[in-house]
Amino acid sequence: MSDATGLVVAAFGRHCVVESPDGARRICHPRGKKNLPVVGDRVLWQGARHGDGEGTVEKILERRNLLYRQDEVRSKSFAANLDQVLILVAAEPTFSESLLTRALIACEAAGVQPVIALNKSDLVAPFAQAWQRLWPYRHMGGDGDGAHHYQVLPLSLTQSAEVDRKALTQLLHGKTTLVLGPSGAGKSTLVNLLVPGAEVLTGELSQALGAGRHTTTSTTLYWLDGARRSALIDSPGFQSFGLNHIAATDLARLMPDFALHLGGCRFYNCTHLHEPGCAVLARVAEGQDSQGISPWRHRIYRELFAELSAPAY
Ligand SMILES: Nc1nc2c(ncn2[C@@H]2O[C@H](COP(=O)(O)OP(=O)(O)OP(=O)(O)O)[C@@H](O)[C@H]2O)c(=O)[nH]1
Ligand SMILES: [Zn+2]
């Protein structure tokens, strides 16, 4: 029997669900222990000989990109072959700027475009404050054409559902988008708004996969259109976001507000922590300057630099 192609649309531990081009789905198991398939992977698979309807993933086709985090002890892949990542935070609970920055750096390192959404604009005062905290992200890398800033989308998923659905549908059109966000920001609300019946679908998948198996975490791909061109990938929340796969000396290049000034330091191997003649340090200041670097961002950089320079043990 020759191998067929398919797309991984769900992953639960070591098992995954592979969708064929005709839309049929089946549970598949990876061949080896290494190189587990992740959601978004294009794979070659084969049906089992004994005909229980399940299959085996024979090969993972070359990935365009892979977004993952690398904590001290383990690596956690989010998904592969992404066009963009939607990072959903909210006015409340207050989001961690460090986690946001880490997610953005991981996106830059993977070569995937991040978009930030700030939910709960109906909570007027906390929203205004959060929107202000996001000022550097809305302007970093300079203003004007070709500037490398991040799109920041205000949302109120429960109060202006229809308006938000339109904006999001446009943003996600024709793309494969991973949604990341801390618990409580409104990720389930967003998925259910865009994919009516998502909960039922996930329930069915978990049940099919869960029979006699331990299923805890899951990542699921949902199609947003009948033509199956726009996809939304939902993955479990996270409390930490390790970047141990990134070298400390690469951090500045992956932070657009720092990257803007990299040619200007006196020393070619400047760490932008303490050196005289550092063009990055010269731009660290309070206030609204699209060429500037907020003290918060520099503090996060300093922490990350220390974390990634520490010897592994
Ligand atoms: N005020 C307000 N509340 C919202 C909005 N969107 C979601 N919520 C509420 O925020 C809470 C968290 O929303 P969820 O969608 O469950 O968030 P989640 O990110 O999936 O959180 P977990 O399930 O913990 O991962 C719920 O009580 C929602 O009703 C919004 O636009 N405004
Ligand atoms: Zn420097």
Automatic annotation (TrEMBL):
One GO biological-process annotation of the entry reads: ribosomal small subunit biogenesis
Instruction: Provide the alphabetized UniProt keywords.
Output: Cytoplasm, GTP-binding, Hydrolase, Metal-binding, Nucleotide-binding, Ribosome biogenesis, RNA-binding, rRNA-binding, Zinc
- Please list the residue ranges annotated as the EngC GTPase domain: 80-239
Which residue positions does the secretion signal occupy? none
Name the needed cofactors. Zn(2+)
Binding, GTP: 119-122, 181-189
Q: What are the record's GO terms for cellular component?
A: cytoplasm
Instruction: State the superkingdom.
Output: Bacteria
Q: How is the co-factor bound, per the entry?
A: Binds 1 zinc ion per subunit.
Top enzyme class, one word, equals hydrolase
Query: Its principal location?
Result: cytoplasm
Q: Where in the cell is it found?
A: Cytoplasm
A GO molecular function assigned to this protein is: metal ion binding
SUPFAM superfamilies, alphabetized: Nucleic acid-binding proteins, P-loop containing nucleoside triphosphate hydrolases
* Alphabetized PANTHER family for the sequence: SMALL RIBOSOMAL SUBUNIT BIOGENESIS GTPASE RSGA, SMALL RIBOSOMAL SUBUNIT BIOGENESIS GTPASE RSGA 1, MITOCHONDRIAL-RELATED
Q: How does it assemble?
A: Monomer. Associates with 30S ribosomal subunit, binds 16S rRNA.
Q: What is this protein called?
A: Small ribosomal subunit biogenesis GTPase RsgA
Q: Whose protein is this, by species?
A: Comamonas flocculans
Which lineage ranks, top first, belong to the organism behind this chain?
Bacteria, Pseudomonadati, Pseudomonadota, Betaproteobacteria, Burkholderiales
